[in-house]
TrEMBL record:
Top-level taxon: Eukaryota
Record's protein name: LINE-1 retrotransposable element ORF2 protein
Limits of the Endonuclease/exonuclease/phosphatase domain: 19-184
Domain Reverse transcriptase: 341-504
InterPro entries per the UniProt record, alphabetical: Endo/exonu/phosph_ase_sf, Endo/exonuclease/phosphatase, Retrotransposon-Effector_Assoc, RT_dom
Coiled-coil spans in chain: none
Entry GO MF terms: catalytic activity
Family annotation (CDD domains): RT_nLTR_like
Pfam families to which the protein is assigned, alphabetical: Exo_endo_phos, RVT_1
Gene3D superfamilies attached to this UniProt entry: Endonuclease/exonuclease/phosphatase (3.60.10.10)
Amino acid sequence: MTEGVVRSIGSGRFLDWGAMGAQGSAGGILVCWDKRSLELLELEVGIYSISCKLKTVENDVVWVFTGVYGPCNRKERELLWEELGAIRGIWDEPWCIGGDFNVTLSQRDRSRQGSLSGAMRRFAQVVDDLALIDLPLQGGVYSWSGGRNNQTWARLDRFLVSQGWLDIFRGAVQCRLPRPTSDHFPILLKGGGMSRGPSPFRFENMWLKVEGFKELLREWWQGGERVGRASFKLAAKMKGGKWQGPVRKGSGYEKRGQGELQEVGSLEEAHWRQMSRSCGLEKGIRTLGGEGGIVKAFQQQLREEPGWRADLGGEILELFKELYDQKSFAKSLNATFLVIIPKKGGAEDLGEFRPISLLGGLYKLMAKVLANRLKLVLDKVVSVDQNAFVRGRQIIDASLIANEVVDYGKRGKKRGWCVSWILRKPMTHQLELPYEGLDKMGFGSRWMDWMWWCFSTAKFSVLINGAPAGFFPSSKGLRQGDPISPYLFILGMEVLSALIRRAVQGNYILAVGLEAEGGRDNGCLICSLQTTLLSSARPARIN
């Protein structure tokens, strides 16, 4: 086994592996793992198996995996059983064994069941002695076919796990995958994620298909009397609506039919693979807009069903009236989940991840209304230096102007310099900065109180493996995903523009005078995260 062969099927520089060489055309074993998730502690290579002692990077859990390729000969198979017993003697950590054992465990593992053979009895004895558990197989009964005209079927491939391993990776099952060419079906050890906390509530579209769900939800929403502020009553209704018990009872039907569904999965996969290729070539780009196309599918999602529109107008208006009169709303509506998204493939350092804020729907509704009002006046209160997120200006204008000025200077052989810098963490400035900017620009106290309440009462919870890990308050920075954040960022950048403008007026910087609407500009161009300063100063003056 060469590294080039392994890399061709792996995941780049994060792939680590161990291998046992093949004997002729049989007997080879390759075990691969992702170094970002698993750390190899020890490796043992036997005659018929390869065992890895691994540590889960996330929580330092140590466990053992053994890959097996069993011999067909009875005497050699006995050596395999002794080898597995020796591995158990070396390590007593939670254990998972997987591979082609080349022997069935019971009569039901063969299409021609016959009598219970000595090899089956011995295999069952080994499984019992090593205290291993044979997980259920989904997607089919057998894992191999052969013999004359492939009429013989048997389950030769399987995963066996210890109870300790199953306690860590709960809910794991074996799944039979489709086989393209081999006489063996691939077996996937599926699920079994580590036990985690409850994930945030998410509405499932399938609930709308449950008979009586809409009537139940409408009755529950409109029933019951809640007292308090409008935002509190809405928050209480939203919180109380995060129940799933009566609806999830139907998920038992799915579980009971899961085996039957997966059994025909391989046949359907082959059928639809062929259909997708032929239909794709036939329809081409027409699938975007033709009958049954992608666009039409999304349009169907936006159409209302008769009698289903919820009457929330009055409650939403009460929420906005509360915001207007009291300049605040229930803090629970401003809770935010943070999801960490990698900026590039193979991200490792914290700086290579981008936090995305998942805001609540009610807060986002209020923030969007405030943002729509703010953007109407933004072009009147920020300088012409800024081009991003301002109505009537384009973000590309700054680049075009800078290129024109540089070209003009080159043609006229004029001396000067140009410096450009990019903000590394643009959204992490102090909360007071945009607030003070609003005050300097003449915004009223009511508007300033709205803004301050929106970004000062935010609290965050980081989703770790899909589960929230407690809340903490916001002390600085703006939320990505908040409709107000781009405009508050522009107001914060206006402070930088004012500082540069003051430096130009005091002759600390000899800037290139750019003719702009409303007078001469200070030679500063701000394009979102990038700031460019153009100067006609000579090198001696720069020093």
